[in-house]
Amino acid sequence: MAVTPFDDREGSLWLDGKLVPWREAKTHVLTHGLHYASSVFEGERMYSGRIYKLEEHTARLFESARILDMKIPFTQKEVCDASTLACEAQGFKDAYVRPVVWRGSEQMSVAGQANKIHVAIAAWQWGSYFDPAEKMKGIKLAISEWKRPAPDTTPTRAKAAGLYMICTLSKHAAEAQGYADAIMFDYRGYIAEATGANVFFVQDGKLLTPTADCFLDGITRRSVMALARARQIPVIERHIKPEEMANFSECFICGTAAEVTPVASIGPYAFKPGDITRTLMTAYHDDVNRPVSQVNLAAAAE
Prior knowledge:
Blueprint: E1 12-15, E2 18-21, H1 32-36, E3 39-41, E4 44-47, E5 50-51, H2 54-67, H3 76-90, E6 95-103, E7 117-124, H4 132-135, E8 139-148, H5 165-176, E9 181-186, E10 191-194, E11 198-203, E12 206-210, H6 219-230, E13 235-238, E14 250-255, E15 259-266, E16 269-270, H7 275-288, H8 292-301
Parallel strand pairs: 8-9, 8-15, 12-13
Antiparallel strand pairs: 1-2, 1-7, 3-6, 4-5, 4-6, 6-7, 9-10, 11-12, 11-14, 14-15, 15-16
């Protein structure tokens, strides 16, 4: 299936404070973000005209930039408003939204203090991250050779572009072997996450998820945990050894792109999508598709 290149699309995107024609949103090849990975980003989804957890995503974008010593030249409200504007400019009510922050091309060395900080926000239509026909049966995951690094070796709490290269390599290797994705262990050998999503398991009616101490504590992850607790499903965060997967009945991954996706197997370990997975898939679908009026009422009550 032919895919339209992302640099050759119709419409506009938001760049450094204004809407610009999509094809004119360019940066120079000698950009610090390209050579030294000084870039952070977010992945968001708009459902029925509302970007889910927009404020939380924007706050994390600013925190990621702070960790990488970049000061975003806009307020969080301005970036939130620009995210919605980027969708409206494309005429989208349902879309994937990508804010990105990077250092420019004023200085080309490891040091980058002189570089201008750029911000762009683009929106495009993107359906299910995985094959819809396969998703409900549960996807199959490989086990990656790459491990999530220790938090004292890289800024693991930032959603930083450079941290995703081992995810790309892991996903390429998994797809080459016929898998949909891969699970990554951490530097200690505990289960960490998939290449772009967090992972949950079910054991004896309880929901288990790895402690996010060396990988991103996903916003969707936190949403799923809250939805589970609201339904009296016990949630346990702890380190999980790979061999424990033999004792788990259900498994799913979750993220902005993946949403809630059942898992049928991870390497030699098999799972069967069951009641808890289906309950949380439905709960998440209902939550992201809540009318704006309901969201406003809930916010006013807090």
